[in-house]
Each structure stands twice: as structure tokens, then as C-alpha cells.
Amino acid sequence: MQATAHIGVTGLGVMGRSLARNFARHGYTVAVHNRTVFRTRALVEEFGHEGTFVPAPTAEEFVAALERPRRLMIMVQAGAATDAVIEEFAPLLEPGDMIIDGGNAHFGDTRRREAALRERGIHFVGTGISGGEEGALNGPSIMVGGSAEAYAVLGPMLEDISAKVDGEPCCAHIGSDGAGHFVKMVHNGIEYADMQLLAEAYDLLRQVADYTPGEIADVFRAWNRGRLDSYLVGISTEVLDHTDAHTGGPFVDVVADVAGQKGTGRWTVQTALDLGAPVTAIAQATFARAASGQRALRAAYHGMPGGVTVPLSRTEAARFVSRVENALYASKVIAYDQGLTMIQSAATEYGWDIDLASVARIWRAGCIIRAAFLDRVRAAYAADPELSSLLLEKDFAGEIADAQVPWRETIASATRRGIPVPAFAAALAAYDTLRAGRLPTALVQGQRDYFGAHTYERADRPGTFHTHWAQNGRPETRDDNGHAS
Questions:
Q1: Among candidates 18, 27, 22, 19, which has minimal Cα distance to 52?
Q2: How far apart are CA 45 and CA 31, in angstroms?
Q3: Which of 259, 250, 254 is closest to 295 using CA atoms?
Q4: I want to staple 393 with a disulfide (CB 3.0 to 4.6 A). Which of 106, 176, 205, 380 is the partner?
Q5: Active site annotation includes 191
Q6: Element housing 31 (H / E)
Q7: Contact assessment for residue 284 and residue 426, using Cβ atoms and an 8 Å cutoff
Q8: Phi and psi of 53, rounded to 5°?
Q9: Which listed residue (114, 159, 184, 332) is catalytic?
Q10: 67 assigned to active site
């Protein structure tokens, strides 16, 4: 087979097929391969008019169709399936060729694979791709890991097929080895928080303000014309406006209130614990999904006493809408800030040079968390690449200051009525924790030293100390040199 294809895609499920079509639509010759030949034939038969495809029934023919350096994108299930495909194709490649993993792989697996293939002279490019089927076809947000040398060859093609904002591609080289997949993982964690916050806002407007789903859709529609303008607010409007064809009632009333997950939110929380990164809003959003599936526990708790419902007048309800908007926006800023600071922590831990301005830039379109305010996030990090928190930027700090009363009143209203708002509450608690001049963890350190002799630091002088907690008599404190103090 003649080597004519600029890039190859193996794994022609929904995402793989859409990406292959996207490349072809942009003028690239695309070799296509699938474990079952039927999918390869179906793609060419249905979409062959969109560009030039080279169907390859075998791995050998697929690799032979690729121009050097070969660019081979694998779009299969994360985990063992990805390893199996790598083992199938790597022996057929030569030094300088590259394997691009566009799936939702765990960044730790990507680091392992990149190191192993680097020893064989093959570039492994872990690439986070966000936007779902529509984004993959029409322009996703693309977070590319791996070597700078690989990006120099591959990057222009990925930038070409990515989403654009004012002509700028939503694609960037994030950093070495697993950096691209790490940033995609955090993107998905933020997505969990964003979705949960919107669900909590909906629940508050329905239970406290007594708005119908259609009225809440109108509220969301108005919000989407302001600072909350985002893809997720937009689709939430559509979902709330939708009428179930079978019952004629609101769609949200017939959907089971159990949310699934594919693992990236859980990975974010697990990794945050390893890094000591307090992504509490993301964690509570992830736990909220887990709790929704605990049918037996929910049945056991159902009917137990809760808060008191206080009806609002329509005028009071309208004022409540404004308070919820403030609470939603402030909580959203906290959730994004938690994700971005987690990326900073990972960059330090794993030796990645990550430009957060570029991360915010490529999240402005194509991806699920795309939002208008991300342009301001980009500008904040562009102005100060060492910015340790969005809340240190004056405009964001001002908005958080302005939101204080409505943010707190919204959560208080929910608490009084027994309405769960775990993500709202976690965001506010995180804010209050980090702004506090002194935290009660001083007592925790005393407890740890008492039962485990774990030692502690003092606020008034340097060093490490341990108190000999006498069961009877006066405790004695000694410093790290054993001297009494």
C-alpha cells in the first residue's frame, strides 16, 4: 500500500469516526482502521464524499498507508484496550513515528506509556480531547501532552481541526508526558462541579421560589446573556424547556434522579488527595453523583425530619433568583480556581511547565466547560503567570466581595429548608477556610501529637516540637533537639 495518508485513526467508535471525518474535511488524507472491518467500510461508504479516506483492513496495511513520520491516533477504550492497541502497532513503527492517544486515559498510564515508547524512539502523545461527538466533528478543545518535537510535527494538524475563538485555535501543547491527559482530567472534574452547581440552582429555584421548569428555563436563559454565559447553562435551558412526549409533563420530572459517571471526576478527586489539593467543590459534586445512586440508603433516610418550607411571594421569589445567581457565579469561580490551582500543584510535582493562560484560552470553545468568563481567566494568568489564585485578580476579587451576602443567604435558605446544596456549601466553606487568619487545625495538631507523638510546629518560633502528655501532672514540651521548652 502506498504511503499517502497524513494521519491515521484506529478505533472508529463515535469519537474516532468524528475525528477522522474532521481531519478529512480539513483536507487531510486519513487512513482509517478498526478491529472490526465493518466499521471501516461503513465510514467510507457513508462519509467518503467528505474527503479522502484510505481504508486499511489490517494493522500492517494501516501503518503502510501513513507518511513518515507516521502519525497514528488511537481512539479506543482507556486501560487494557489502549495497551493492547499500542502493543499491536508499536512493533510496526520506526523511530520518530508517533502514537497519539485521544481517549480519556489516566495521566499515570500516559506517563508510563510515554516513557516505555520513548526508549524505542517512538513519540507517545497523550491528548485530551473535549467536546463530545459534536466537538470531535466540528472542532474540539485539544490538550496535547508529550514532547515538543512531536508537537512541532503534529500540532499544526490538531490546531487546524480544533475549535476557534477569534481565529485562535483551542489547541495547545500543555507539557511533557501525561500533562495533556492530566489537564483533560481536571477539565472533567470542573465539569462535574459546574453541572452540580447548576442542578442545585435549579433545585433551589424550584423548591424555594416555586418556579416551574419552564420558568427556570427562562431564568437560565437570562443568565446565559450575562456573566454566566456558557455551554452548560445553554443546554440546561434546553433540558428544562423540554416536554416529555409520553406524559406531556416536564422532561426533568420523568428522568430518574440518579447520575452516572465514567471515572474522570473520581480520578480528579483521588489525585487531588495525593497532591494535597483541596478541590472540595469538585469532590462534593462527585460524591453527589455517588449519593444519587445509593437507592437503599436514600430509601432508609426518606421521610426523616428536615427543614421548614416557608412560601415566598412572587416579589420575594424574584429577589431570591438574584441571590441564587450571585451564589452560582461565586461558587463557579471557586470551582474553576480549585481546578486551576490543582494543575499548578501537579506541574510542580511532575515537572511540567504549564501555562494556565493557554489552558484557559483553549477551554473557551469546543469543550464542555466553555464559558465567556474564561477569556477573563486567560487574561488574568497572561498578566501574571505566577498568580496563585483567581481571587487575587482585582475584578474576580471584587465580584466575590459583592456576592458575599447573597451567597451566604442562599446557602442559609437551603439549610433552613433542608435542601441539599453540597457544591454551593463546599465552595463557600473552601473560601472561608482559605481566607481565615487562623484555623482550628491547631487543635488537630495537638490531638495528633497527644495520641501519636506526631510532633507539631509552633506559631511563635521555628522548629518541631513534641509535648509529653502526662496522664497525671504537668505536660512537658520538648523541641526537635529534645530540649525542654
A1: 27
A2: 14
A3: 259
A4: 380
A5: yes
A6: strand 30-33
A7: yes
A8: -115, 145
A9: 184
A10: no
Cα 184 from Cα 441, distance rounded (Å) = 33
Classify residue 346 by burial, with Cβ atoms within 10 Å: 0-12, 13-18, 19+: buried
**CA pair distance 288, 269, nearest whole angstrom:** 13
Cβ pair 193, 42 in contact under 8 A: no
Residue with cell 510532633: 455
pLDDT of residue 265: 87
- What is the pLDDT at residue 422? 98
* Residue-level pLDDT at 3: 82
- What is 54-122 written as a DSSP string? EE-SSHHHHHHTBPSSPEEEE-S-TTHHHHHHHHHHGGG--TT-EEEE-S---HHHHHHHHHHHHTTT-
Amino acid 292 reads: S
Positions in the chain whose pLDDT score sits under 70: 1, 471-474, 482, 484-485
Decide if 30 contacts 42 (C-beta within 8 A): no
Nearest to 125 by CA among 78, 191, 181: 181
For the CA atoms of 8, 11, 12, 16, the dihedral, rounded to the nearest 10 degrees, stands at -70
Three-state DSSP at 456 gives: strand
CA proximity to 123, closest of 156, 157, 147, 90: 147
Tally of CA atoms within 13 A in the half-sphere of 447 that contains its CB? 5
Instruction: Record the cell numbers describing residue 133, joined without a space.
Output: 461527538
Q: Report pLDDT for 1.
A: 67
Q: Are 70 and 97 in contact (CB under 8 A)?
A: yes
> What's the rounded Cα separation, in Å, for the pair 448 and 343?
30
Burial of residue 6 (number of CB atoms within 10 Å: 0-12, 13-18, 19+): middle
Exactly one of 45, 149, 164, 191 is catalytic; which is it?
191
Dihedral of alpha carbons 205, 209, 215, 218, sign = negative
For the stretch 246-254, contacts whose Cβ atoms lie closer than 8 Å and that sit 24 or more positions apart, written own/partner, are 250/212, 250/213, 250/214, 251/213, 252/202, 252/213, 253/213
**Pair type for strands 464-468 and 476-479:** antiparallel
> From CA 273, how far away is CA 291, in angstroms rounded?
20
pTM above 0.85, yes or no: yes
Separation in Å, CA 321 to CA 37, 186, 201, 211: 54, 30, 9, 10
Strand partners, 173: 144
